[in-house]
Amino acid sequence: MQGASLNESAAKNPETSPPLLAFDGDCRLCVGSIRGLERTGILGNLETCAATLVKGEDRQVLDQHRRAGEIVLLLDNRKSALSGAAAFRWILQQRFPGFLSSTLNWLPIFWVMTLGYRLIASWRRILIPPPVTPDPLFPEPGWVGAFRGSVSILLLFGTVITISIFSTKLGIGNSDQWSPADQLLQYPGFLIGAVLILNTLLVTLLGYRRIIDLFATQTFTCFLGALASGTLLAIPAFVFKIQVPLIVVCLLYVVITSALMQNYWIWLGIGDEKKGLTAQFTTTLAVTLGGSTLWTGYLATFP
C-alpha cells in the first residue's frame, strides 16, 4: 500500500490485518500529508486508505469511529480504533520509541497536541478547498465549527491590524497618526465585520445554511488579500521609495480577494443557478468592499 496512488489505496489483504490508517480522500492537504509521511517512512508498515474506499468488516469498524475532520487508525487486527491526535501519538511512539515520544502521554502536552491537530483539521479545507462538497453521511464534530468561528474572529482583527500597519508604513492618508489599537476601535474596523456578517445572513436567507464556513472563508480571504496586497505594495515603496496611490492599493486588494473567493464555491455548495450566482456576487462584493473600506477608511474617517 505504501506509496500507492489514491485510486489504488483500497485496503487489501484483510486476513493479515496490519494497522490501517483511514483519512478523508477529498482533502488535498490530508492526501499530501499522508503521502509525505509514507515517503519519509514515518508510517512504517501501516496501510493507508481513503475512508470512502474502505470495504467489508474494516468499514463497519471505521464507521463506528469516523467523523469528518479526523483520521482513524484501525488496530488490534482492525477491531479497535484510535482517531485524531491519539492516532498520531500512536504512530509517533511506534516510529520513535523513547523518552521524547513518551512525553506525549503527559496530559498537558497531549492537550497542546490535540489543540494543534484540531486547529489544522478544522481549517484544512479552507487552506486548500476541495473540489467537492462535504459528505453529508459524516458531519463534522462540533469542535470544528468552534475552531473555525473563533479563528475567524481573530483573522478579522488581524485584517484590520495588517492593513493599519501597512497603511502606516506606506504613508497612505493620515494613518501615521493612529496606532493599530486605535484602528480597531474606530469605524473602519467595525464596518468590515458588519459587512461580512450581513452578507453571511443574506446568503443564509438564499438557502445556504453553512454560516460558519461562509464567514470563515470570507475572513480568511480578507486576511490573505490584506497581507498579499500590502506585501506587494511594500516592495516598490520601500525598495524604490515610490509613493503608492490609494487607488492602486484598493484595486490590487480587489483583484486578489476576488480571485481567491472563486476557489470556494464548490466546497461551499454555492452553484451556478440564480440563487447561487446571487450569493457569489454578494459574497465577492462583501469581501472586496470590506477590505477596500479599511484602506480608504483612513482618509474618510481620519481626515
Describe this structure in words.
This protein is mostly helical and 303 residues long. It folds into two domains: 6-127, no CATH class; 144-301, no CATH class. It has twelve helices and four strands, in the order E-H-E-H-E-E-H-H-H-H-H-H-H-H-H-H. It has helices at residues 28-40, 56-65, 85-95, 99-102, 107-127, 142-170, 180-184, 187-205, 211-239, 246-261, 265-268, 274-301, and strands spanning 20-23, 47-50, 72-75, 80-83. A four-stranded mixed beta sheet has the order 2-1-3-4, sandwiched between helices. Helix 6 (142-170) runs parallel beside helix 9 and helix 8 runs antiparallel to helix 9 (211-239).
List keywords for this structure.
disordered C terminus, 5% strand, 303 residues, disordered N terminus, mainly alpha, 4 strands, four-stranded mixed β-sheet
Number of helices: 12
Strand order of the largest sheet: 2-1-3-4
What sort of overall outline do the alpha carbons produce when their principal axes are compared? globular
Give a quick account of the main beta sheet: strands, pairing sense, barrel closure: 4 strands, mixed
Q: Tell me the domain tally.
A: 2
Oligomer classification? single chain
Specify Rg, calculated over alpha carbons: 23 Å
Strand content: 5-15%
**Average pLDDT number:** 82
What is the H/E string?
A: EHEHEEHHHHHHHHHH
Helix fraction, binned, reads: 55-70%
